[in-house]
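Lab notebook, bench 4. The sequencing result for the construct came back, and we need a structural model before the next group meeting so we can plan mutations. Quick request posted to the team channel:

Model the 3D structure of this chain.
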Amino acid sequence: GDSVITVQLTEEDKVEDDVVFYLVFTGSTVQHCTSTRKINPGSLETISPGHDCCETVKVALCASREGHPILVVAEESFQFVQDEAYDAAQFLATCAGNQQALNFTRFLDRSRPPASDVDFLDEKVALAFRHLKLPAEWNVLGAEQSLSENIPRETLMHFAVRLGLLRLTWFLLQQPGGRGALSIHNNEGATPVSLALERGYQKLHQLLTEEGAREPDSWSTLSHTVHSGDYSVKHHRGLDVYLLTAEA
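Done. Here's the predicted structure in token form:
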């Protein structure tokens, strides 16, 4: 989700300025409707929705004009694919609290990727995490969340901080157990906060310690979502488009 989609109109579809175009994505359990903005008379732009599963959905381009019925201008299929970022987010979400799996992730630290790769990984995995359907009882500390904080253990927060993943750290901080993870020591006696300090990650250290620290700049900061029952509405300030998602 959250990729930019461009729609090219054919000559016969280029119409008056008072016509409004929408894209409607129909999946097996969820439907999305996005508004569009006109780039020029022949091109529209919108945002792809974050879907609940990897599948091929039907997408319809609809045209609306006051006092006239809504027209379906074109139909096409659209595929939500399972990429590496999705796999990584799903793996990390599943292994929250799993010491064997979390210790395994530490091998990444030995061959630290370049800063540009870290930034790309951070943005993609954090975005994938936002679109995962996490169980209601999910916790950053895993099923062993009730364990005494005195027991040394590796956490998802240690993983995110060790690699310098600002946006993923922010996401985890907002989840149940996120703040509690900050004071947990691992087997080397390091907390996520001390790890950030030790590695010289200043922005990350501020994020973990400053009261009222703001979300790091990312694509997600350009949007605001309101949930109501089976519906959610997201406004992307960057493109000024709206996305309505409804469970079928």
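The chain has a mean pLDDT of 86.
Will bring this to the meeting.
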